[in-house]
Each structure stands twice: as structure tokens, then as C-alpha cells.
Amino acid sequence: MLSCEEVVERASEYLDRDLGRWGRLKVRLHIAMCKHCNRYVLQLGLTTRLVRSRPADPLAPHVEDQLIESFRQAPPEA
Amino acid sequence: MIEPQSFEALLQGDEQAFRALIRRHHANMIAVAMRYVRERAAAEDVVQETWMAVFRGVAKLRDPAAVVGWIYAILVNKARTRGKRDRRTLTFSDLDADGGPSQPAVSPDRFAANGRWSNPPLPWDDIDPERIVGGRQIWAHLGAAIEALPPAQRAVIVMREIEGQDAASTCDLLGLSEANQRVLLHRARARLRQALEDIVAMKGDAPAADKT
Questions:
Q1: Domain containing A1: what range?
Q2: Is B55 within 8 Å of A59 when comparing Cβ atoms?
């Protein structure tokens, strides 16, 4: 039986399906019985989804314009 | 991943397509460059040089799926060179800088001696944190937490979660072993989860605020 601390250390690999079949089963057994670890794993997955869907910070307009200016001066080679 | 039409437009030298590319990747590129150079200004230089190389070379590409990896390969190469030039030698590894290879992702204080939670994760009330703290605020908070990650963790999270690169190409681009990449990714996620827990806890003290 894995301890909570061990489950937490494996939580990313569990979510990414990087654990072997046996390793995966051990985590599943634990989180089926432990609401804290279940919560941790759910929250870690939610965190990852939020990171992925976070809108990009807008770029300062002068940065973009400067880059486009140099793009105009250096058009791509064919 | 670049859509086929945008890829065509890039090959044609279409300005709008380059604007879109810059908007999408510029800030992420700075984050990755910061793993190699210490100063923000140096990272900005490196990213700008990278864009020049991208403008000049993009017409030679054939595969839309390879564009992002190609851009980052140029970036890392330039950032590494610049980092070596600027700094006396870097004597510690990424993992040492992040607290040593044996440092766990979640503080051991939160567990009892038998490995069980003594200070378990706070409930997020079974709803997503977006609803608790309001959209804009959570994005800002999460953005700040990503920026505050140790450089190698930040580079890995940007490549994996934001740029959507898989583990193999992330290892390749950042010169990491598979094991290190996995540890850095897990630590980064654990820290970001903690940052969200912190804000949820803070809001919990003032439940009436920000619910609308």
C-alpha cells in the first residue's frame, strides 16, 4: 500500500499515464480509499488544465511593432 | 501546432501571420530564454535575434508540425551561447537550483511520520477555481505563479503545457534527461497547485466578495 506522500509524488505520472500497469493500480487503489489524495490528484489535474487554457498575456504594442518593422526589412528568403 | 493555412501564409511572408506567431509565442520564448540568461534584457535580446532568424529561415520549412520545435531550437541555441558569454560558469544543475534531486514536490510538513496527510489539501469546494475567484484574477494569479517558478521548472511547464510539446521533444530542446524532465514538470505543477490553493484559502476568508 502506498502512503499519501508516495501517491503525491506519483500524481503527475499518474495523470500523464506514465506509470506502469501495476504502479497505476496502486495509485488507484489508494485514491479510491483516501479522499485527501483523491482531492490532490483532481486538483493537480485541474491546475494543469488551467495552465493550458490560460490566455496569453498581451504583448506590449511597441514590442510587436518593432519586430514587424524588422520583419519588413528582412523579408524571408525564397 | 500551426494550422496549415497559417503555415502557408508564413511561407508567403504574410505580415498578419507573423503577427499572430509573435503574439502566440513571444512571452513563452522569453520564459524559456530565462533558463539560460539571468537578465530579462538579455532574454529579450535573444528572443529578438531568434525572430530575425525565424523571419529569414521560415520559407525553408516543409512541415507545419515542426515550426514550434524549430523556433525553440534556434532560441535555446542562442540563449545558451549568450548565457555562457555573460556568466561565470554555472556550477549547479537545474535540480540543485530547485532544491536538490531528493527534495519532494510537496512540503514534507504536510505529512505525518507515517506518510499520511497531516495538513491535507484544502477543498476547492468541488467547483473550479475560476468560479471561486473570478476569471481574470485567477489568470493573473496563475501567470504570476508561473513566472515565480525556478527557471528550469518554468521552461518545462511552458514547453509541455503551453507550447504543447511532448516529453521527448522537450527533453531534446532543453537538453534534459527524461527523469529530470518528469521531476521538473511535477514540481512545477505541485507549486502551481499550491498557488491556487493559497488564493482559494484567501478567498475563503471573505466568502461574500468576488462571487459575482
A1: 1-54
A2: no
